[in-house]
Amino acid sequence: MILFPIMKLSQEQQTEFNTNGFLLLKGFADPNLCDAILLKAQEHLDNKVEPIESEEEYLRSGTGSSTIRRLRQVYQRENIFKEWMRNKEILPILEQLLGKSPKLLLAHHNSIMTKLPQKSSITTWHQDIRYWHYENDELLSVWLSLGDEFLENGLLEFIPGSHKMNFTPEQFDKRATFRDDLEKNKTITSKRVHYNLSKGDIVLFHSKTLHYAHQNETDKTKISFVYSLRSASNLPIINTRSDFKEISL
Ligand SMILES: O=C(O)CCC(=O)C(=O)O
User: Fold this and answer.
1) What is the CATH number of the domain that holds 196?
2) 156 C-alpha to center of ligand 1: Å?
3) Which residues contact 139 (CB under 8 A, 6 or more apart)?
4) Which domain holds residue 212?
5) Which of 60, 145, 200, 213 would bridge 29 by S-S if both were Cys, CB 3.0 to 4.6 A apart?
6) Closest among 31, 39, 45, 46 to 145, alpha carbons compared
7) Residue 10 covered by a domain
8) Does 191 map to a domain?
9) Structural domain contains residue 37
């Protein structure tokens, strides 16, 4: 079912990932696979299949309404989701970036992200590692675009090199969001970059890369798939949220 070329990163691409903390691979996944994933994702959305993270939960707004922001724990939900997360074609690339035998995390991301028209929120600048608990930061995520993604429908934006920057605790708020009221943070976020995405494109990004996403201002739902991995030697800290089921690839 999954048809796309087995490939490795060039030296330039590896350097780009290491320097910027993210890397775009255009047309990595077969569009038919993306459509099949999208069909199943839409079914789960229509039926509000739990576990779900809602916009209200994310914003801590407590309005009582519920707008789906993320289908969580998707690995177990459908074979097609599992197949994508276990695909062997990406393994040589992951091994170039994380070393031999990376582990697929079921604790973090493992999600289908949705941005519903008019109802979605901004995802403020953050590093994914903020709520993760591992011995070090050898962790990355794979973002699969299932359709067109651009600024107006909530495309991700990144700060190049932020995975290697040293920040002080004051640069983050209580929710570990990168504060946007500090001049020195504004200087950093002014370096934001983005790439418009099309169906089948993937973006690999480091767990410390600062990223952000705008709300969806179009009238069409945006749906994307994201999962995360760690290097084999980077163990989760026992008795934390990260100490959860993992898959050997
Ligand atoms: O799509 C979004 O709003 C942001 C998603 C994100 O930042 C994440 O999954 O880490």
Assistant:
1) 2.60.120.620
2) 7
3) 105, 128, 129, 132, 206, 207, 228, 229, 230, 231, 234
4) 15-248
5) 200
6) 31
7) no
8) yes
9) yes
